[in-house]
Design brief:
- It is a single chain.
- The N and C termini lie far apart (74 Å).
- Strands 1-2-3 form a three-stranded mixed beta sheet.
- The radius of gyration is 31 Å and the shape is rod-shaped.
- It is built from three helices and three strands; from the N terminus they run E-H-H-E-E-H.
- The protein is an alpha+beta fold and 80 residues long.
- It has a domain of 37 residues: YefM-like fold (3-Layer(aba) Sandwich), CATH 3.40.1620.
- The relative contact order is 0.13.
- It is 26% helix and 19% strand.
Length: 80
């Protein structure tokens, strides 16, 4: 890792950014004191979103009994 001064960083910023894009890292120092790290950003892979209607997991099957009318006893339990 290379150390550069703030003056160098300001004067040659484009050159240093080109190096950073290649993976190089720089320590920016004010005098002899390191104050910053110039490093490339991590590029996360883009997250793909599912298309409308696309299943993300196993297909859920609804049994026919779910659509059957409730019995009188069940209606009473539910207070209907």
């Amino acid at each position: 890792m290379t150390t550069i001064t703030t003056h160098e960083a300001k004067t040659h910023l484009s050159r240093y950014l080109a190096e950073v894009e290649k993976g190089q890292e720089f320590i920016i120092a004010r005098g002899k004191t390191a104050v910053a790290l110039l490093t490339p950003l991590r590029k996360d892979p883009p997250q793909t979103r599912p298309k409308v209607g696309e299943c993300l997991g196993p297909v859920m099957v609804v049994p026919d009994s779910a659509f059957a009318p409730l019995s009188d006893e069940e209606l009473t339990e539910w207070g209907l």
